[in-house]
Amino acid sequence: MPRMTPGPIPDSHPDFTRIRSQKLSGGTVTIVADASGLSASESRDLEQRLKAAALAMPYVQEARVALTAAKRGPKLIAIGSGKGGVGKSTLSANLAVALARLGHKVGVIDADIYGPSQPTLLGTTEKPMAEDKQLIPVEANGVKLLSVGQLVSAGHALAWRGPMASGALTQLVEGDWKGTDFIIVDLPPGTGDVQLSLIQKSRPAGAVVVSTPQDLSLIDATRAIDLFRKTDVPVLGIIENMAGYQCPHCGESSDPFGSGGAEAAAAQLGVPFLGRLPLSASLREASDAGRPPAAEDGPAGRAFRDLAERLLSALDG
Ligand code: ADP
Predict the structure, then answer these.
(1) How many A from CA of 56 to the centre of ligand 1?
(2) 91, 94, 284, 288: which to mutate for ligand 1, most atoms within 8 A of CB?
(3) How many Cβ atoms sit within 10 Å of the Cβ of residue 4?
(4) Using a 6 Å cutoff on CB, does residue 282 contact ligand 1?
(5) In the chain, what are the domains?
(6) Model pLDDT for residues 66-104, shown as the tens digit of each residue
(7) What is the 39 CA–ligand 1 centroid distance (Å)?
(8) What is the DSSP letter of 65?
(9) β-strand 134-136 against 129-131: which pairing, if any?
(10) Interior CA angle at 152 toward 139 and 201, to 5°?
């Protein structure tokens, strides 16, 4: 709950939860607001909105806004989807590898309690060690990894109730991520309490929503975007997965799930469209074998590098 901060900006103002203090002296108001998780341009917008709201009060002649420094340490990027099976985990693993190949120190938190697949996707069976109860991530394909799948045997996490799941996920978030620039968080699919509490606890700097092109999937994606907006996490964009299929035998292209739906939805929802990935048997085979295509120089590797670059520019805002 926000602290009570009596001052010119009322608690009904949409940015009120970010206000840490507001002091009025003479006709000058000084507002301190928390800009954690906001990009540079969003921080500027927040500053301007707060200033305008304060100056709208007849007794305020001058408004000063100080934004508290963004959180130190790695930037978390949450990868979410409204439902399972759209390729959220595959994209998370490959975006992480692509970011690492662009020269960043990258971690992956596999929070998908319904199907923790990052150890398989990144090709590792190693278990993390703990030091003073803090988990030390394992390394695979140039990225650090902590996964729910490393803590419990396959299928067990699914049976967890909310508080147990949240407790385990906190352990992953509070692992030893020293020296990491970015942490990709592979969220559980859906928009329930586990997702909400993980978002509130980990305060991601931004979020990406993965969708397939069908209408039904897009309705779910919209719900995921709503969840991030409600929790003040900037939506960096939508990625359309499994868009279009090129037959490996005859080379003919088809659109088994339709195409372009996510781009249209992104425009409608006012969020950036980061790009699309085709349905590809070789991508699935390489993923199942723990060889992330982003680690290679082929067309898939280039596609993931492009997505990672767009993600970084969206983050810089
Ligand atoms: P989610 O995390 O959304 O549940 P996954 O990443 O686990 O989805 O993907 C579900 C399945 O679809 C996996 O078998 C994966 O290899 C496959 N898959 C994901 N993206 C593609 C793609 N572009 N082409 C072919 N198969 C894909």
Answers:
(1) 51
(2) 284
(3) 7
(4) no
(5) 16-68 (no CATH), 75-316 (3.40.50.300)
(6) 998 655 689 999 999 988 999 999 999 999 999 999 999
(7) 30
(8) E
(9) antiparallel
(10) 75
